[in-house]
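RECORD TYPE: protein structure
NAME: nicotinate-nucleotide diphosphorylase (carboxylating)
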Amino acid sequence: GGEGEREGGRARERGESMAENGRVSIPDHPTFELDGLIRSCLSEDLGDRGDITSLATVGDSVTASGVFVAKEGGVVAGVEVAERVFAMVDDAGVSRSWSVKDGGRVERGDVIGTIEGKARSVLKAERLALNFMQRMSGVATLTSTMRDKLFGSGAKILDTRKTVPGLRVLDKWAVLLGGGTSHRIGLYDMMMIKDNHIAAAGGIEEALRAADSYLSEQGLSVPVEVEVETLDQVDQVLTYLRANPKTFLTRVMLDNMVVRRAEGGDGYDTSLLEKSVAKIEGKLETEASGNINLDSVEAVGRTGVQFISSGALTHSVRALDISLKLKTNAA
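PREDICTED:
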């Protein structure tokens, strides 16, 4: 294990940059419970019979050991979740040792952790543990890559609600571990007035007034964001702000203002976004959304916008390739 330990040590050194402020905790949520999620995922896998292949072919006294290895470079996330999976399957029967913490950076070949114990328990837990780690590490890695492209711009990269149903808290945790910033968790912790709400309320001013009234009546203090797509709508928002300085409104989402140039053209046109940011003059926070990807994010960062939200971070991310090599010894 000497070589593996050295690899893990190097990975740990590289990963220190992420943990500048120590451990990044799981996002707070009023109804989410990690153990409950893991229990439900295990029961999805084990059904009403359990792991019938292992029950048939692996003796009760057989032990197994395994090594989690990064098959490519990236940012690791999901270690704490994998740890809980093994703990819930057989805490006493499987020992775990992790050489990379969540948020740590790895290169191809780095050892992330090792497990050892009852083979049946290891085989029961390994796929679920890997699924969580690979997906979360993929999200963290893409977030980190996007954040690096914004270096020097001062803009922060945000996630969205375009997450896997049931896994939102983990998807958003992975974004934080990759150095991103969390947007609202759900529909309950921030008001976001989008085009459908504006249409239903009868206009931007009406929607903002209704939001302010509701929050005052309910005694709630949550931030309000409004979505706009044109300079005229930006003007309407600023007019409301001037007339209502005590509004709960804190941020404007500048939606679909990043346009891919026509065939043969180079890159993205961000001129409308730039004009909107200039018009707002820092009176409200600004957020760009729509068409945000690895190709466009750098240009978007140069417009002076403060936040950039990207559904791509979580809705269609590629898993980081992590393998678990197992060895069993029939006793």
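COMMENT: DSSP finds twelve helices and 14 strands in the chain.
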